[in-house]
Amino acid sequence: MAVGGRASVSATSGPASLQDMRRQNLAVVLGAVAAHSPVSRADLAGHVGLTRAAVSSLVDELISRGAVTEAAATASGRVGRPGRALAMSSEGPAGLGLEIGVAHLAACVVDLRGDTRVWRRVERANAGRPAGRVLEDAAALAAEAEAEASALGLRVEGRVLALPGVVSNEPGGLVEIVPNLGWRGVRLADHWPDPDTVPEPENEANLGALAEYWTAGRPSATFVHVSAAAGIGAALVLDGRLFRGTRGFAGELGHFPVHPDGPDCACGGRGCLEQYAGEAAVLREAGLTPPGADPVALLAERAGAAHAPTLAALDRAGRALGLALTATVDLIDPDGLVLGGAYAELADWLLPSVRAELAARVTVRPWAPDALRPSALGRRGPLLGAALTTVRRIMANPTLLPAG
Amino acid sequence: MAVGGRASVSATSGPASLQDMRRQNLAVVLGAVAAHSPVSRADLAGHVGLTRAAVSSLVDELISRGAVTEAAATASGRVGRPGRALAMSSEGPAGLGLEIGVAHLAACVVDLRGDTRVWRRVERANAGRPAGRVLEDAAALAAEAEAEASALGLRVEGRVLALPGVVSNEPGGLVEIVPNLGWRGVRLADHWPDPDTVPEPENEANLGALAEYWTAGRPSATFVHVSAAAGIGAALVLDGRLFRGTRGFAGELGHFPVHPDGPDCACGGRGCLEQYAGEAAVLREAGLTPPGADPVALLAERAGAAHAPTLAALDRAGRALGLALTATVDLIDPDGLVLGGAYAELADWLLPSVRAELAARVTVRPWAPDALRPSALGRRGPLLGAALTTVRRIMANPTLLPAG
């Protein structure tokens, strides 16, 4: 894995070197190519505020590392030598995203331009199976996706796996617990067939939030992304960066005590948010039998048909979510709140009561109702975020790419 | 104000320069002098991993800017020229901290070694007085403190004012609201007598948290500091940096809906934390008449005398605080929780019930009872944090100091 390493600590304690400067300047030039592509070397120098000679040296390195391509000379309207257009490489470096869910596996490959080039998804009942078997299946799907990418001229430089569980902050990313798969203390390298392609695990809510941040047109730099699958998770993007907490447990919104004397929760607490806004609780309150396939689709279908108990259950869920989000806004002072995952698909019925609670209770700080919005990516976010993680790392530090 | 500017955005978008490198290396060398003082140039080079020549040039600049002093030559046990010991300057650059409370004004001056050299405090009923009059009094106290510092050979390079209110993130730091003083939308420069000494305002809870972080022996890098004065405030230190939120409102713990159907709160919400753990609520529940001078001392005195209603009121406050802190731990995943301000003085009676709630409700994440502790600084934290802010800025960027 060429582009690895999680939660890297910025080395503010050591002296700065010429190498640090060059790395930073490579990133600045690559960012400018991405923003202005196609662009000539001369125009690029103007954009970044470095000399033409400095930019040319940096561009040459970016080309040799496969991040940038240079088209054949084209005539321009200007006096002098015609410019050769620089652009982000559509072949070469790419990021692989993987996802293991309760009932599916998925893989995708994204190129340096951020374009999705490969997307595969298979239904698979993973809950309760041994982690090693599930990971073998995921590795097989990953290999297929990499082969497909390779046929497109792409070279996977990093691999990230989205999981509905908690991943520790330690290097290597121990998977602490995945409640709905029945995993505890799983180290991917112990099970992955090929030691050269072991992915880095990450919590799916975190990756969904990052995907939202990286793909939104005018993103909030500080927002909380709440998503629901079988459980409820939140991810915090603060000043443009994912905040994972001391141990990787940040964003455990599902066990906020929204009604302290409420019903017992499986976690050992009482009146936790999941007892009101979790999938199982909403289905129970709506009087619906959990279906085998897609409970979210069932809830949306019943709510769309104005089924009164379903509407009441979603209203109750929204009010509880509004209480938890009131505390979240008070504590974090975010620019926005995003409802992702299953909540994005149920937003029509959740948003009114969530907004009512926020309006009544967020009083010290100014709060605009439309600061709460559903995610545009919905359930696709985590897989996309997994693949984009590698792309963003390369953009921030092009020397992660092998020299040509 | 030589060392100004709040919430500076790190310029990751521009190219790196030799000037950036030198600034960073000056900070590394100054940090090493602080850590190893007294220290020779040769030993310093070893500590920071730069050449002796590079270190000498950096040291010369630090001396000319007044940050470092060099003792006369002393004989060492080593072969060769005797080393001259470098140390942090005990004269020269310093930071001024100011504080405006409901019933007092205070000022202090801290030198580059972090030592408090001047400390002044006067009782003054500030609530309800016009902001301009209070600020004139604060400016007079600041001038006295600066004169005293000047007599000690110190030169104040930056001024920060601690306030029990919300300060916006915008440059210049508009004071949005100070509920218990009756201020709203106050810009200090409009009232401060001397335009050259206008302080930068900051929320007192934030400064208390930073003081805790900067002075603790082995600090948590990610912790939440909860403090109570007339209201309840929290401050978030995340990865070693104060997190202020999008608008400066982060940490508004006082209006967490701990019992959503509880009593009405003055904020417009219901069942807010302040209705259970705020000073007025605890006094009321304890059946005590709010005293003129020091309600916290009264509560501590009654609790120490085993006054049953006071003990019950503090137990109830601790339980409510435990609910709010459960949500805080779930969301932030901090390394520690610190009870500061008045809570530090009431910790003996609050801690048991706060810990009981945390133990019962923080279940997904491992939680150790002693991760919750009272602040060692107590009510002195905010003023100290205000003065240390300037010292820390100089340590991070010595070029903020005027060249000699």
From TrEMBL, chains A, B:
It comes from the Bacteria. Pfam families: ROK. Gene3D superfamilies: 3.30.420.40, Winged helix-like DNA-binding domain superfamily/Winged helix DNA-binding domain (1.10.10.10). Belongs to the ROK (NagC/XylR) family. This is ROK family transcriptional regulator.
